[in-house]
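Troubleshooting: if your tokenizer reports a length mismatch, compare your output against this known-good record of 581 residues.
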Amino acid sequence: MAGAAVKAKPASTIAEERELTDGFHLVIDALKLNGINTIYGVPGIPITDLGRMAQAAGMRVISFRHEQHAGNAAAIAGFLTKKPGICLTVSAPGFLNGLTALANATTNCFPMILISGSSEREIVDLQQGDYEELDQLAIAKPLCKAAFRVLHAADIGIGVARAIRAAVSGRPGGVYLDLPAKLFSQVMDAEAGAKSLVKVIDPAPAQLPAPSAVKRALDVLKGAKRPLIILGKGAAYAQADDQIRTLVEKSGVPFLPMSMAKGLLPDTHPQCAGAARSTVLKEADVVMLIGARLNWLLSHGKGKTWGEPGSKKFIQIDIEPKEMDSNVEVVAPLVGDIGSCVSALLDGIDGKWPTPAADWVGAVKARKEENIAKMAPRLMKNSVPMDFHGALGALRTVIKERPDAILVNEGANTLDLARGVIDMYQPRKRLDVGTWGVMGIGMGFAVAAAIETGKPVLAVEGDSAFGFSGMEVETICRYNLPVCVVVFNNDGIYRGTDVNSAGGSDPATTVFVKDARYDMMMEAFGGVGVHVTTPEELSRAVNKAMDSGKPTLINAVIDPAAGTESGRIGNLNPQSVVRKK
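Known-good structure output:
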């Protein structure tokens, strides 16, 4: 009846009818609000239910057999998407397993967030012996870009937002987010919880270079007689593909791609100097670095690789000011994001590019053609058992015919030789060990590449490298991913012919079980296993696998004597000066 008084409900009843939320749901909602819909991880105490609830909420949760490989997957997902990849682990040992991947992501500038459950602070701080007790935040801090701990459900939104911004802003990297077990079960009002979430606005804002820095760089470039552009994986990450291509082609300058920058312009591009690497590094007088660092992979910018000391000037484009002058003087530092810096150079040159000296361009072309001609017969070699060049020659043709496929590559000889043999044609299609040169990234990278892109993946692995993450072929089969793994099997690390100099029954430290059948591992989990001994068989098996989209592992038998110590970087192993008499 109109105007009738309404009896008020007791406060206790109103409280019971309020909609509530908890820490589990707030973490999931915070990630989804920021466009993150995939989690890589390993379930266990105290985060098992978080994974279940995330899956129920429509997120894709990819469960691995080991946290390091889940972390590697998250890291390369960040590289491919420019959004932080998420790795979810249990406490203590699981956290430590993921920490290797987090540190590697930070070193390689891959945006990634490692989220780990942890023991309660009051027990950890008094060292009272909780289940998997470990001060995880303190351990993570020195190995990543930033580390945060969330203690209250109302702060989850801010914690996730800070982690996202830290991971992708400036120079990208790894971030640790510590979530104690008690946090997940904390309850709060759902409306208040929703209001506490934060959608990160412009997490990686453009950083424009100073006009004076742009002019300085152009002046140095104009004065060059033998210029060279080096493209690093930072250039690939930037996704400024059109601007970089325009800069290279309008300038006419020879370019040298680092391994994960291969394909920004095709390796078959007439200006690509990959096949004349030694010549251009030694002879160039001006070197422009775009998203590349003068670390060990470039001999620190000095030494005999680079010719006479002081014979060249460096222009460097990087978002991190501290990178400048890290090894040698950089006469024209250009600080800013790569897209903005390259666009500023294009605007500043105003279409009037200085043409590189014809004798320089001609010398690079001649050396390139000479080296390609020398290599060609080795790539056509059809020996049984195969050597590395014959096997890689077959895979080189596969990638040429399938330029959209993603190549994952790791090993010693398998990695070092594939860098120079297999041409890439599109950006961000080659994923490898990166700055640290660590083994074990293969299966994690392969899984994430397939998940994030939907493209077929060819993982070319040395038998030693495959051993680090080989159990993840079960993960590949479980999710039915279009991944073809090729294991170059030469029975050992570097080669399978080393002997124990002390005699006795133990094998040499670098030797594996002779004639191992890695293909049977894939068959054990329902995938396709193939055993091949010739380049023709290898080519046929890879093409069939990639046509089918079925999880496949090809055991490619390589001559046990074919490898060399550490591929091309054996000099990094110090030699003993003491000889036993």
